[in-house]
Design a protein that fits this description.
By secondary structure, this protein is of the alpha/beta class. Helices cover 47% and strands 9% of the residues. It has 15 helices and 10 strands.
Amino acid sequence: MTDRYQPKPEHKFTFGLWTVGSVGRDPFGEPVRSRLSPVELVYLLAEVGAYGVNFHDNDLVPIDATPAERDRIVAEFKKALRDTGLVVPMATTNLFSDPIFKDGAFTSNDPRVRAYALQKTMRAIDLGVELGAKVYVFWGGREGVETDAVRNPVDALKRMREALNFLCEYVIDQGYDLKFALEAKPNEPRGDIYLATTGHMLAFIETLDHPEMVGVNPEVAHEHMAGLNFLHAVAQAWEAGKLFHIDLNDQAFCRYDQDLRFGSHNIKAAFFLVKFLEDVGYQGSRHFDAHAYRTEDYEGVKEFARGCMRTYLILKEKGERWNADPEIQALLAEINADDGSTDPFKGRYTPEKAAALKMATFDRVALGQRGLAYERLDQLTIEILLGVR
């Protein structure tokens, strides 16, 4: 019997080299897994059925590599991609690990650091495009502060805007087919990070010289760290035409960045997220930016990766069942019933509509007393998720 939850290329499941390549280090403990090379990680991802692999520049090429070393590493990586059929849909730059970025990259107070960050990013963009990337993600890992005494946040925004405008022009000048996706996070590793949520990013994008080139890369864990509803952030990005990429993982609300296996903690939130992406026809990568537990060896890492993809496909099937359930659909029809009595007031404002609406009569008491059956609707959702419906 065929397992219907096996990943296929059309599902566009991707992982970063930094995800399956995590050695399990944390602030309180040393690595628990040996480091695998990028080539070994490509073969690992092919084994578990992934569609693609994404990377930071230094996940692939060490920051101090010579040009000859760089060319050798890239050639070996390309061969592994050819051998496995994996693709590179997205790339990004590490602007947070090296000590030079301890006070940020694009927002650093030191103009030499800002210039180096631009140089590093241009070279990384070249590498990403060379390997086929169509989306370039920007996560401002150190773009923040521990104390606002060090920088006026308005200056930080101006510096970030200047950097992104510069890089947009670079991409245009090079003739690259590339879009940028900005990734928000409220804190960690800095005490407070600028542009902390997807909503912040969406507002900021409209201030850029080329907003059409720039969208967002929302991440489950980053919105949940702030206690926010991730689905709502994704929906706002989608409605704005700015959902260029997405990072899937899981996270307990208001904790440190956990990067848990997708769907392993907030199963109902994951369900409605998957259902939304599938219902609206999202065509981008389903990128899993998560890590296996520190307890695992590499067999456990493979189980983690398989689990991310399998859970997504299970929830996709649950969403289809929810959409087809006659009682759920009947409840939705009842909840959204429209007798046409407000049709004269709908649509764009006109003085006539406003005058008519001011004169209309509503049975406020009856409307306030009406039960909406949301408890029943939510219970039916839970029963579908629990497999009893």
